[in-house]
Amino acid sequence: MKKSVALLTALLLLPSLFGINSFAKNSFLNKNSIENGVVGVTYQKEEDNIRYKVAISKGSEIYYYDYSGPGTEFYPLQLGNGEYKISLLKNISESKYMVVHSDIVQVKLENENVVYLQSIQNVSYEPGMNAVLKAEELMNGKINTLDKVKAVYQYIVSNIEYDYKFAQLLDKPHIPDIEKTYNTQKGICYDFAALFAAMLRSQGIPVKLVKGYSNNIEGYHAWNEVLIDGSWVTIDTTYDVTMKGFKKINMIKDKLEYQPERYY
């Protein structure tokens, strides 16, 4: 875990240059889900070996994402209501990037938690996926949110294993594949947090995928915050899987043991 979680920082590396502007047309943006706090980016990449990023900023805050393309990838607008700038960046040398496209969007959500119900790049799910069908099965007959969350939590902690081998071999930015994690029954912390978020979101429960640091884990880490009865609670399925059999674990963690840096 120590080696793998540090690799997640690759997703947070800031391009050192926005320099060359190439504002062709703004059709690169899919704005159909703006009312749900999500924006899509579509671009026909010129060469497969060139790295692209999406930059999403509001005020002084900015998030960077890798763009794989050529299809549409969706990203959250999780910094609250207001004006966002969306830019597609192309790597031109080492850590330097140029702006290929850029546009401004306005976000006005009645409930800002709606963004944490959406399918996005790193919490990508669709109806009919095995993980989604399993979440529906686990929650069947359960009334309150806490019981639904517990059902999915217990399934993941009991069935998904931490992939130490993959963690050691991982040498490039990693985007979770929900169905792959579910079907192979293994993954790293980023995969655990994404799978948990997808299974709950697909059943109408708002969940944040969180990156940052924990007193319990060495290095960069990923976990979840879940909205239960009006309050956000911290849940760390990865830690609980690795501690299973060694110590008593509680599903809901002490927030003071976690230092969030990014929310998705």
Q: What are the main properties of this structure?
A:
264 residues; alpha+beta; Immunoglobulin-like; C8orf32 fold; five-stranded antiparallel beta sheet; four-stranded antiparallel beta sheet; 7 helices; 14 strands; globular
Give a description of the structure:
- With about 260 residues, this protein is of the alpha+beta class.
- It folds into two domains: about 10-110, Immunoglobulin-like (Sandwich); about 120-264, C8orf32 fold, CATH 3.10.620.30.
- It is built from seven helices and 14 strands.
- It has helices at about 1-5, 130-140, 145-160, 165-170, 180-185, 190-200, 235-245, and strands spanning about 30, 40, 50-60, 60-65, 75, 80-95, 95-105, 160, 185, 205-215, 215-230, 230-235, 250-255, 260-264.
- The strands form four sheets. The protein has a five-stranded antiparallel beta sheet with strand order 13-12-11-10-14. A four-stranded antiparallel beta sheet has the order 4-3-6-7, with no helix packed on it. A three-stranded antiparallel beta sheet has the order 1-2-5, with no helix packed on it.
- Helix 2 packs across helix 6 (about 190-200) and helix 3 (about 145-160) packs antiparallel against helix 6.
- Mean pLDDT is about 90; it is low at about 1-15 and about 20-25.
